[in-house]
Amino acid sequence: MSDKLSKKPTAHRKPLNKSTVNPGALTRLRAGIIGTGFIAPVHIEALKRLGVQVSAICGSTKGARALADKWGITEVYGEYDFRSMYRSPNIDVVHITSPNKVHVEQSIAALAAGKHVVCEKPLGMGTRETAQLLKAIQKAGSTCPVFAVNYMCRFFPAVLQMRAMVQRGELGKIIHVQGHFFQDWLLKETDYNWRLLASEGGKLRAVGDIGTHWIDAVSFILGARAEAVFATLETFHKTRVRPKGEVKTFAKVNPKDAAPYRVDTEDFASVLLKFGESEHGFANGVHANASVSQVAAGWKCSLYLGIYGTKASVQWDLQQPNEIIVGRRDEPNQILQRATAGFSEDVAGFTDYPGGHPEGFPDSHKMHYRAVYEHIASDRQTPVLFATAEDGHHEVKLCEAILKSNVKRAWVQL
Questions:
Q1: For 322, which DSSP code?
Q2: Which band of pLDDT confidence, cut at 50, 70 and 90, is reported for residue 255?
Q3: pLDDT at residue number 249
Q4: Is residue 3 over pLDDT 80?
Q5: Neighbours of 178 (CB within 10 A)
Q6: Are the folds of 23-152 and 154-358+393-407 the same?
Q7: Who contacts 57 (Cβ-Cβ below 8 Å, separation ≥6)?
Q8: What is the DSSP letter of 342?
């Protein structure tokens, strides 16, 4: 199985114009959702905005019934009985939003049942199991259903625009990349979520949960994959308290109803990366540095990146998703705004509203699922801009290299 960057159609050839797929084709596809936590309703809402019918929900009996009642979903599968849901003739695409430890099992079963898959990241808990998924996809060959990993940051118009600018050479040769992904929802020792537990979410938490979004976005923009890493991981809260029952992401915990436990995942990290050859030659061997934190007070969801080339630079922050700052040495700097000159033609197929009407986090999910569903509806005739299972496997391999680097205090090659 090759780990080379998938050769996807690039934005520098022609603009990402509106799709020629009949919009009505999407409404004929039906979805089933596994999971009932924070991200599940995000998937449901985005699909409904596209006109896709959400036919089924699977999760804990109580959680699945509550979401079904709220969103008008007719088929409910409690006790996480995903195999029964897969037998439903009313589902074409499965969205897996369950805890990380069951992603691979549920994905392989979905493909075997002939269902297309959109799986939340990370793809799995380790490369040993994600390799099993790749093997199943490889064995199925051309008959394998479409598989996508939910690295939706690729579908912010700004990310697509920066990708086009890099691949056209507008920034010149890329020298380096820097940035961060900061949140504060786990700042206090009383903050709790299942992702804090290595047994549930994996040994790499902050980097695995949000840092991989930064890395994937940068990789997508550069058209190159990270080939080596040097990382330092730190856990500020060595001990936290957890509730007697589970809580949803970003929910508050009453300390009186909690007990202490030893934390076995990181709160923040510093990561250096070296990327390989790019698809277009403008970003070969680029170095990048990223800071990742879930204990950064005041930062709710700041994915910031700066890409610096010999001609110009670009900067962008997810918390200000409709603007790109373009920096130059001998000319005035610019602020490009979505749906205006210089930030419109390249991304026409991935933005719906006119300038001044902000698009953000929910819209990136909508655009991602539109790209996946159009690929299915067109019998795979549209570009594969979404992250594939091979991309997801590479991200898990990268996470393992980061863990190894932290222990060795040295560069680790993938």
A1: T
A2: low
A3: 63
A4: no
A5: 16
A6: no
A7: 32, 33, 36, 40, 64, 67, 68, 71, 73, 75, 76, 77
A8: T
Structure tokens at 263: 């934390």
Comparing CA positions, the residue from 275, 278, 273 lying closest to residue 286 is 275
Q: What integer pLDDT is reported at residue 252 of this predicted model?
A: 66
Q: Which of 130-134, 192-196, 274-278 has the lowest mean pLDDT?
A: 192-196
Q: Does domain 23-152 have CATH number 2.40.50.140?
A: no
Residue 162: closest CA among 227, 225, 226, 223: 223
Q: Give per-residue pLDDT as tens, 116-126.
A: 999 999 999 99
Among residues 220, 150, 219, 223, which one has the least CA distance to residue 389? 150
β partners of residue 325: 315, 335
Selection from 107, 136, 99, 120 nearest residue 368 by Cα:
120
Q: What is the CATH architecture assignment of 154-358+393-407?
A: 2-Layer Sandwich (3.30)
Tell me which DSSP letter residue 256 carries. Answer: G
pTM (predicted TM-score)? 0.92
Among candidates 83, 74, 142, which has minimal Cα distance to 107? 83
Residue 4 above 50 pLDDT? no
- Within 13 A of 98's CA, how many CA atoms are on the CB side? 25
- Tell the residue number behind the tokens 């409404």, with chain if given: 27
Structure tokens at 222: 């550069």
Q: How many CA atoms lie within 13 A of 106 on its CB side?
A: 29
Residue spans per domain, the chain: 23-152, 154-358+393-407
pLDDT at 173 exceeding the cut of 80: yes
Tokens 């602020």 sit on residue = 335
Tokens, residue 145 = 């259903």
